[in-house]
Amino acid sequence: MDRGRDGDRHRDGDRDDVVRFWERLGLPGIIDVHTHFMPERVLRKVWAYFDSAGPLTGMEWPITYRHDEDERLALLRSFGVLRFTSMLYPHKAGMAAWLNEWAAGFAARVPDCLHTATFFPEEGVDRYVRQAVEDGARVFKSHLQVGAYDANDPLLEPVWGLLAEAGVPVVMHCGSGPAPGKYTGPEPVGRLLSRHPRLRLVVAHMGMPEYAEFLALTSAYPEVRLDTTMAFTDFTEEFTPFPVAERGRLADLGDRILLGTDFPNIPYPYAHQLHALERLGLGDDWLRAVCHENASALFG
After folding, report:
1. PANTHER family of this UniProt entry (predicted)?
2. Is 134 exposed, middle or buried (0-12, 13-18, 19+ CB in 10 A)?
3. Tens digits of residue pLDDT in 112-163
4. Is residue 264 within 8 Å of residue 65, measured between CB atoms?
5. Alpha-carbon dihedral angle through residues 183, 184, 187, 190, given to the nearest 10 degrees
6. Which residues contact 286 (CB under 8 A, 6 or more apart)?
7. For residue range 172-191, what is the model confidence (pLDDT) as tens digits?
């Protein structure tokens, strides 16, 4: 078998499947608020962690789009992804400012990427976050599981105030899936929001597995949103199924749910995330809002 041609056929089929999805909805394309681009050596370490079935995953997790950066960008564009992010995050102090420098350069040379930044509770965090906002950062990533920090750390208090005032969204991995962390779960996030109710928080992965609790926080705080990353897919439904009883709340909050996928670090084709949303049966208007309109309104 010609492996190169076989791979091309798979990519063509994947692309056609995605394009058919948004064309049927009458959209100009889709907006994906949860994609990963980061320095190559950092990404290779992330992939190695997935390959080893590390303690934060604990399961086999093949990377479907294990390609170099240029090919990953070409794939997203061929899918009709109009805007995407470069989600990146530190696992220790001393990394975030350097990651932000890289991300600013990436956004400058990749104009369809929303300029993404990150932070860690450390001395000087308010200074480099303010600098990132002044440099044009459109979205931040906070990973409470990997970073193993409390969103309520006093060092972060000026950061939350700054981001709330600036209206810059923060995509936060705060749910306890796929493995709980010391500071994950809805309770610490609820305390954060009680102090900063205008914070534009985007709860990654629909808050899995605490779906109901994060849906309740979204209902309580008008600036809170959720992203769909990996939720509702066959892969996730096997170990963290979304409760059927909460389907109605998905419809009620249809203006505050955003498409996210985790590209390229997903163990299935990109189109599967879209079809997983479609089979929820919430209608074409809901899909249009989730896959394009909500993010377009949030990011202008």
Report:
1. 2-AMINO-3-CARBOXYLMUCONATE-6-SEMIALDEHYDE DECARBOXYLASE (PTHR21240), ISO-OROTATE DECARBOXYLASE (EUROFUNG) (PTHR21240:SF28)
2. exposed
3. 999 999 999 999 999 999 999 999 999 999 999 999 999 999 999 999 999 9
4. yes
5. 100
6. 250, 251, 254
7. 999 999 889 999 999 999 99
